[in-house]
Amino acid sequence: MSMSAASVSMSAPHPLLTAPMVRTILRIAAPTTLVMIVQTIVGVAEMYVIGRLGTAALAGFQLVFPFLMLMTMMAAGGIGGGVAASVARALGAGDRVRASVLAGHALIVGAGFAALWLLAMAVFGETLLGAFGARGETLGYAVTYATVAFAGTIAPWAMFIFAAILRGTGDAATPGKHMMFSSILQVPLSAFLVLGTAGWGLGGWEGMGIAGAAVSMIATMLLSAALMARRLWRGAAGITPTLAGRGVSMAHLAPILKVGLISSLSALFLNITTMLVNLAIRPFGDAALAGYGVGARLEFTLVPLAFGIGTALTTLVGMAAGAGDWRRARSVAWVGAGMAAALTGALGLVVALVPHGWAGMFSGEPVVIEAAVHYLTRVAPFYGCIGFGMAMSFASQGANRQGMPLAASVVRLCVAGIGGYLCVAAFGADLPTLFWMLAAAVFLYAAIVAASLLLRPWGPRRR
After folding, report:
1. Does the pLDDT of residue 202 top 80, yes or no?
2. Residues 224 and 182: beta-carbon distance below 8 Å
3. 328: CB partners within 8 A, 6+ apart
């Protein structure tokens, strides 16, 4: 870059700093939200396909799901959020050169975390699944799925890091387009690989079983990552990942890791909560665990609709913070979090009113449906709280203020995870009581995040 070009890049304000607030949130959020809707359908279809293998397969998948979701949340919302926020703040300050170098360091961070996940699950995966209640046939299905899925950790990490870099520039359309294409492709590929042709009454190949679902996920994510990488290296995003010939620098790793690791801790606490709830439900049997999985799957598929709005907030708040416009940063956060609460809350209320319709799509066993209905009628009405808290957490990434969202996650863990487990294990609580505790926990989660911004508004850090 010439000195004159560098001068221009340093002085020209980014157009997102002055764009209309609501319209801009909707424009940036729309592609990602649409992807999440498609992935919701994909998740439902995948559960349907795995459910064709039996209740043990569904229960085994549910035991692996929290680990897979933890990795996904770290890659997309934790470390990915740190990537998007750091790139956005650099662009908000008008420094495209720094944004490009941050993007280059983001790829190194992503590769490192992919290797850590692969190693950790290869060494401890079966032990962890057994510790959380998997036994017999259920354990066999869980280990098979986990072994294949985590062998391909580079796929989700590559896809989500490339998507985060693009989102940091304000381009949500490109990752949305490519991730939607790969998600749609995953449905028929998963059905074919899991059930083969024999599973659909066509004879011949009997498929790979539950491992086929993991292979389908890895293949389609790699395709999406490759398409996004091509756009970045063509220069179409305005920045190109590079180390600028200076090697790896802690000055560029630090802003990514500072935001990303704290946000990842929040994701870790959320998934530990889910794992403890799984452990609390274990004494009620595989059917109850599968029923909870059916209900909780709605949370993990509907709530990520807030991810689209949340990622828009990371970018917009980050750019405003980088430019020193804290009033705009706070306004964007409140407006976006309200939008996320309205979306997830409305969907949660609809399903809470017709819980048998949702549960009946995945199982015909009365015990499975009963457990799912207990969950949906108690927790789903509070999904708006989860959407609000998630969106505000993403906004906090852009502002580099993740302390209170982390504290709120700890409270949710203590009430729902630890408290719920102790109520069942020590006091013999039933499933409805456990699910009421989950509902109380998500309400407290949203209340703490909202109160923190009201009582201590974001602004320049005090020296």
Report:
1. no
2. yes
3. 17, 21, 320
CA nearest 33: which of 344, 358, 350, 388? 344
- Residues in the chain, overall count: 463
**What Cα–Cα distance (Å) separates residue 456 from each residue in 291, 401, 405, 459, 461?**
41, 11, 13, 9, 12
Q: What span, in angstroms and rounded, lies between the C-alpha atoms of 448 and 224?
A: 37
CA distance 183 to 172: 16
Query: What's the CA gap between 347 and 298, in Å, rounded?
Result: 10
Give the whole-angstrom CA distance, residue 226 versus residue 355: 39
Contact residues for 456 (Cβ-Cβ < 8 A; gap 6+): none
Q: Burial of 15 by CB count in 10 Å (0-12 exposed, 13-18 middle, 19+ buried)?
A: exposed
Place of tokens 């098979």: 144
Tokens 């980050």 -> residue: 318
Q: Looking at this protein, which amino acid is placed at residue 223?
A: L
Query: Distance (Å, rounded) from C-alpha 287 to C-alpha 162?
Result: 39
Q: Tell me if the pTM is above 0.85.
A: no
Nearest to 431 by CA among 336, 382, 367, 361: 367
Q: Which of 37, 77, 62, 1 is nearest to 375 (CA)?
A: 62
| Residues 162 and 82 sit within 8 Å (Cβ to Cβ) | no
Q: Which residues are CB-neighbours of 428 under 8 A, at least 6 positions away?
A: none
Distance CA 144, CA 182 (A): 23
**pLDDT exceeding 70 applies to what percent of the chain?**
94
User: Rounded distance, CA 304 to CA 104, Å?
Assistant: 27
Q: Which two tokens stand for residue 295?
A: 């209900």
State how far the Cα of 31 lies from the Cα of 326, in Å rounded to an integer: 26
Bigger pLDDT: 322 vs 294 = 322
User: Mind giving me the DSSP string for 140-192?
Assistant: HHHHHHHHHHHHTTHHHHHHHHHHHHHHHTT--HHHHHHHHHHHHHHHHHHHH
d(CA 179, CA 182): 5
Report which of 30, 123, 67 is spatially closest to residue 274, judged by C-alpha positions.
67
pLDDT value at residue 323: 87
| Residue ranges in 242-304 assigned as alpha helix (H) | 250-281, 286-302
- Site of tokens 């499933």: 431
Rounded distance between C-alpha atoms, residue 394 and residue 343, angstroms: 16
Residues 55, 139: Cα–Cα separation, whole Å: 12
